[in-house]
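Hello Y.,

Per our agreement to keep a running log of every chain we model this quarter, I'm adding this entry. I've kept the format consistent with earlier entries: sequence first, then predicted structure.
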Amino acid sequence: MPKKVILLGLGDVYWTRFINKFSQALVQRGHPCVVVLESRLGEYQSLGRRGAYPGCSVYYLSDFVNDYRSEDLPCTDVFPVYCDYLRQYELGVGKYLKHSFSDISSYVSAFADFVLAREADAGILISDTVSTGISYAFNRAAERAGVAYWGLSGSRISGHFIAAGTIDAEADVVKRIYEDIVSGRIPVTSEEESWARRYLESIDRIAPDYMKSDILNSISLSKYFRARYLRALLGGVLYQLLEPKDCKGLVIRPSPVYAMLGSLWRSISRVFKARYAARIFNRLDGGEEDGDYYIYPIHYQPEASTAVGSPYYCDQLSVIRNLAFSMPAGTLLYVKEHVSNIGFPSVSFYRALTGLPNVVLVSPQADMKNLIRHSKGVITLTGTAGFEALLLGRPAYYFGSVFYTYHSLATRLGDWSFVRELLAKKQIVESNAVTDTCSYLIAYKRYCFEGVLDFTKDDFGISEKLLEMVSEFSDLSPSGSA
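Predicted structure for the entry above:
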């Protein structure tokens, strides 16, 4: 019999709808399924009632918290919930949490061990890329139990998605794929080479799928008047009225009313802060000649890749300030705002940037590819801009966990006393003799899976591909039917 598939859902509408649909698709295909949810909140926000998962074992963190004696909580480190700390305080609702972050970390760790112990015959755990305390705890518990973790996220190349084991493991996996290509063990096919050439030729017109979201990129408040949001608001109110016990068991988020009001207020204040920010940005697109500048793209926050992949550098003002005073003589730092982030930072954040030496604020609408092409390189925490810089033959300097650590033009920054020295070194090469660009791009493509991950769709737009992957995994598994 195939091993069980655990579906771990975050406590939002999107994951609840996906699990509600995908769990039944698994059962119909003969794959035993386990559903794990943070609470019943997402069910009320998407279905208006409690959910049903026929043929599945179901676990709720909220039930576990309500039934678990607080005096029995294990002593765990709090790092797994650092991303939740950053997220809740960035959203302005951290003060409404019912538990301390020490207790939250203990609850999610104990819950992950509890589920994996009860479901000892599980083979795959499908969830979001590690982005919250609960996904972090389950990722580590799955690793200890020998269960494959598939963390779904968008890819840096359009039309593809990722099912990652961990953020940290990406570099090792992609490096092995690259070495297989350049050594000739698994050579590039003519089809792959043709795709890579076309991709590089049209790179100025290409953007990852996750950067195309109208909702994320829009400053307008119109999304709060859409049927989906109003349904979620009504569902949150029903949940709080009809499920007081389950609501009491919420640990990673405050009660839904506080959370939604906090989100609304953040969006309203964003409109005014974005208008202020627009007045101080420079519209620079890069010239025909190479310039004496590096580019630092501001990251959207709160966001998983920085909260988990670069947790010690999430204070972007501090990072930019240190970079400004680490620029080699005669070199500028172009700080480019992200179209999805403009207006979210405080006005004091933008004001502080304008007072820094060597810093030029660049509009979100500026041509990023052209800026990269004529720069001395990109400095990023974990961003896509570093990946694009390497494709354009420019150095990429990074602080967090990225998949391109093996690239000859990639340099990790950490010790500030050496940053100026590292930036002053000439790293731009005239040819790609050290790291072949096409092989680098193809290696990453082989790491990804074809399909557009769309969180707004009930099946994420990739359910058929996921079912195929699960079936293939089961056939290869020692306990599978093959």
